[in-house]
Amino acid sequence: MARSTKSLDVDAEKGESQHVEIVPVEDGAGGRIQDAVFGELSENGPNYRNVGWVGTLVLMLKATIGLGVLAIPYSFQTVGLIPGIILLTFVIVIVTWSDVVVGTFKQNHPDVYSIPDIGRVLFGRAGEWFFTAAYVIYMIFSVSGGMVAVSTALNAVTVHAACTAIFVVVSAVIAVMFASIQTLGRIQFLGWFGIISILAGIMIVTVAVGIQDRPAEAPQVGPWDKDLKLFASPTFAQAMSTVAGFVYATCNPPTFIGFVSEMRDFRQYKKSMYCCQIFVWAFYITIGTVMYFYCGQYVAFPALGSAGVVVKRVAYGIALPGLLVTLIIYTHLPAKFIFVKLLRGSRHLNTNTPTHWVVWLACTLSTTVIAYIMGSAIPIFSSFVGLVGATFAPFMCMIPMGFMWLKDNYWASGAQRTTRVKLQAAWAALVTLMGIFLVVGGTYAAILDIRASTSKVKPWSCTDNSNSVPTA
Questions:
Q1: Which residues cross the membrane (predicted)?
Q2: Domains of the chain and CATH, by start
Q3: What's the mean pLDDT in 301-313?
Q4: Which of 53, 218, 285, 301 is within CB 3.0–4.6 Å of 214 for a Cys-Cys bond?
């Protein structure tokens, strides 16, 4: 048999990049590469380790940046511009530190693939089950929020040409179709379309409010007062709700752990991550500040409606592909988690067998169906998403990361407990405690919001939801 070779860059279990020659063997199975999560990878199955650092950066940006940025101007009105910028910056710093810990922990524990795996390493079987519940709930409701966001865009663009429930079904069908692509390496091309469209849609609204005489929500004749607030006096519940919203809009570690697991070279992770976080910080602060400056107290919630109906339709239309890609990514990741959980250690995980495809499609379909039911059946869904975000987001991007750092750097055998290490340990403990405080305070604020809600939207409603969108 003629011998041919194919080159593939892949990481060893310690995260070191190697150049591997894949040489076909007599049985036709091809050369094999061992991965700590996906097992033996060969030419006869999906290549889960095939995302470069640029592709990872695009996926990171798309998973992080969504319409949540359009809630930031309203948050600045609630807490004041200066405290708002400080709080948002502080939250992004914490999340970035958590992202660093995620990448390092993955290299130290190559068999880790998800937040539940991290729970197992930290707290054993009980920790795995607890974080499995938290991760699945958080991700499923993020998928539901994505469906509602897509239906909102379709309502805005078509001027509510069809029942909202139909638009939610359309978004669910598109999600399950594209989320069923097996690997992130094959999905990354969608990320380019997604990030360009979402940035363009947001920028259109930002420019529009700057060149218009006044925002759409302001009185259209006579004098009007922006009532810009450098400092405000929010209640405890309002402040906690704002911080929880910032955390929810920037919480990306549960997606980043999946991204790094499918990178060709783990060592490139931090380059992708830092580029992403710096851009997110600059973009969020710029958009939030500019839109708040031009709209003041009349900023819409979300801010996409601040420039009027026409601009709103154009912006939603351009941002629609970005919303769809976010939905696809958030559908793919929890489905992949369940898939790996069910088939880990089996040849069906990394080979295109009938069992492989049946289980994989069942995972994507079940994830989509459950998210669809949640998104359509809960009458006060946006408030419930706020509750889920406040209750579970800190468990995804703050609380376990403190324990992760302590396990590898402070509690590890032979750890050097220098003054610097002790200070870093104090920071890790502080992040964990802040996460716990946010769970308590954010949940309290979300419950008050639900109690105060006067929403009359019924399950599977046809009501036009284009004047409200969850910050997913």
A1: 51-76, 82-105, 126-150, 156-178, 190-211, 231-251, 272-294, 314-333, 354-374, 380-406, 427-447
A2: 51-452 (1.20.1740.10)
A3: 77
A4: 218
